[in-house]
Amino acid sequence: MSPLAQNESRPAAEAPQTAPAVPLAVLIVDDSEDDVFLVTRRIQARYPGARCARVEDAEGMRTALANERWDLVISDHQMPAFDSLAALETLKASGHDIPFIIYSGELAQHQGIDAMGDGAKDFIYKNSPERLLPVIERELKHWHVRRAKESAERSMVRLANFDELTGLPNRSQFTERLNQRLTEPGMLRASICYLDLDRFMRINETFGYAAGDLLIRQVGDRLSARFGKNNMVARIGRDEFTVVIDLHEGEQPGSSADALMQAFAPPFQLGGQELYLTPSIGMSLYPEHGRDAVTLMKNAESAMFDAKQGGRKAFQLYRAELHLDSRLRLLLESGLRNAIARDEMKVVYQPFYDLSQRRIIGAEALLRWHHPEMGLISPMQFIPIADETGMILDIGAWVLQQACAQTKRWHNRGHFPFTIAVNMSAAQFRQSTVAHTVESVLNETQLPASSLELEITETLAMQDAQATAATMRRLKELGVQLAIDDFGTGYSSLAYLKRFPIDILKIDKSFIRDATVNEDDAAIVRAILALTRSLKLIAHAEGIETREQSAFLVQENCERVQGYLYGKPIDSEEFSLLIERGSAEERRLQERLAIAMAH
Ligand code: C2E
Ligand code: MG
Ligand code: MG
Fold this sequence. Notes:
By secondary structure, this protein is of the alpha/beta class. It is built from 24 helices and 23 strands. Helix 20 (about 510-515) packs across helix 21 (about 520-535). The structure holds ligand C2E and magnesium ion (2 copies). Ligand C2E binds next to strand 16, helix 13, helix 14 and strand 20. One magnesium ion binds near residues 364, 423, 455 and 485.
């Protein structure tokens, strides 16, 4: 028997059948050829074309079971080298689920009952052969019913674990697989991406649900073709998919988003028509944003909702600070209300340097909150809350006022020109009166507008690019400088930058951190520097902590630098010392700069 035929025999035996489309196949275990002849005649009279074969020992039975398909086993009880119980065991050991009937001349009733307890379906005495056909018929019927039930159960399992339309794992199956994957030894870091197709409802409404289904299937096919290597693609909602992409050492999460966006670049087909679809992508990172599938998916989903707010085709990495535990959040929220009145807020100043002049040319104002019980709370935690609740309007105006007044004092002491950079949050920037607020602070403090830089983050700028550009133009009319903060972290189109009347690009510290160890990050920094030059902007690198990073930026002709290497954020008195007395710290910094330049 060829191996191929062996392989074929199993699926055939397991395939669910109703009425036997192929002739019945009966394996008869009996030493008596005459008895087998009679039984075969009987069976073939009822089932024309039935195939009956005889074996008489365990070996013969095993071979027959392994090589051919059987619907039924009929076994004698007592044979010279074999008996029905051993035959039953042989059948069970073969793994086949085939009805087993004992057909015997000499069998005590209690033996028959024992055999049935072991799994035989019935026992028939050879002296009442008229029972044979009804029992066979009954057993075949039972067998088919059992098979149908099993196959229904299998498809229920499939339905419970897989999405019918795309064949991809569904949410519960994906969760299980992701948890499993996270325990695999090779798994170090991965991005969990949550995709929601943009404006898919419109497609359903315009072309109908059947067309929508067709597109969903194409999206599923495309995603699993490109990212399905570890089976980590799933459909978890009407137009929602999840994809897990391994991140290699030093790889930025943005690269996963890029790869996903690229997968949507070619058009989809709909009845000969080409159609473009885009996703909004939320992403969480393993292990930073969670160590189990449920947490990672929840965080990726909330990032997706953030991304959606940025319009279509947006990417957002999960921001833990936006999703604090709700009790802590309430506590912070109520504390924030009176923080300024209670004198718990303070503005600190971090110097930034001009690399060619080798001196401090300004400072970034950074807010600090000393909570009476909780101690120092990071702006990453409280700024988003202040922003969402609108409290940032008062807080932001206060920071602006403090920073401008302080800078004016430094000017008055002869430190001029000296620039102050102030961060603006989304709510502040969207307020229709923002330009007016800035103008009145400048008037009140008498700070020249050109000494004030306003920073808005890249993500905020991109959220409503048109409105952003309009507000920026109003601010520019006042004469202030505008900077894009945390540049490189958002998913922005560089073309937009040209539309903004900006002066400075602040390169996000994540790129600086890795630029000296990862060639991709170095390439990104170089590209941003080339971009700033071609757009005639000032490049400002943040988060410089090491001499290597500093040397790299000197070599690449970055104009401005800021980071712990040059100076941490300090309060206004310390800062005054730093710039007034040319403090020891500054001398050390100057030395560091000199070393970096010589590098
Ligand atoms: P940002 O505007 O990007 O500010 C730079 C952040 O990087 C500051 O964190 C600063 O302390 C930190 N930093 C500076 N040098 C280094 C370095 O060498 N290494 C590292 N690892 N970090 C460095 P901070 O003060 O915690 O502020 C965090 C963010 O909170 C700021 O990011 C800004 O977006 C926001 N923020 C702070 N103050 C204000 C404010 O008055 N208004 C608004 N709207 N946002 C603020
Ligand atoms: Mg900033
Ligand atoms: Mg920044």
